[in-house]
Amino acid sequence: LHPSRRDFLQGLAALVAGAALPDLAIAKTPKPKRHIPTKTYNNGKEKTLQVPVYSLKDVPANNCSKYVRYAAEELFTKRYENNDAWDMRYDESRVAVMGDDWKTDLSDLAKKETIKPGMAIGIEYPKSKHKNDIDKKRNTAKYTHVGLFLGLNERGEPLIAHEFGRNTYVHTPLQLEAKALKAIEVMNSKR
């Protein structure tokens, strides 16, 4: 496992400043400061998930990939590699790619159970300061945000948990779109 660029740069800065090098191993999933109770309906069964909200100390603002790693492990015992959102596509299994009508694509994939709770959703955010960043394969990043698929709500709409800025949300595709977010692809942990 390799540390994300952010963790690497923080460690390098600490080393240059004379501090001890931080432990770059995968950290234990922290205890959430609270939860968002969320009803999901999968395979005809109702379930209330306790969607975690972590402190900003544990998951700093704009660190959506760390949120997805922690929440996936807590809710679904899934482990994702330690990557920036735009690099997850290389270390996880790609399950599906959305077309121009991404909201319908995502809903259809969820209803057909092609995507399952605990899978990661790569999300484009055109206003992101990282939108022109180069990913680890030296390509322009396809997306700069990531969320966690939870299942369907009572109306059959997909639910995605994500940290956006300093806040944690559970959104439907229409709510994502209202924040200028667009699902691009679905990934599953290889582990």
Q: What keyword list fits this structure?
A:
191 residues; alpha+beta; six-stranded antiparallel beta sheet
SSE topology sketch:
Layout: H1 5-16, E1 34-42, E2 45-53, H2 64-76, H3 88-91, E3 93-97, H4 102-111, E4 120-124, E5 145-152, E6 158-164, E7 167-171, H5 173-178, E8 182-188
Antiparallel strand pairs: 1-2, 3-8, 4-5, 4-8, 5-6, 6-7
Structure summary, number of beta strands:
8
* Average pLDDT number: 89
Overall shape: it is globular
Biggest sheet descriptor: 6 strands, antiparallel
Helix-and-strand structural type:
alpha+beta
Beta-strand proportion: 25-35%
Helix content: 10-25%
Walk me through the structure.
The chain is of the alpha+beta class. It is built from 5 helices and 8 strands, in the order αββααβαββββαβ. It is globular and about 50 Å long. Residues 20-25 have low confidence and may be disordered. It has a 6-stranded antiparallel sheet with strand order 3-8-4-5-6-7. Strands 1-2 form a two-stranded antiparallel sheet.
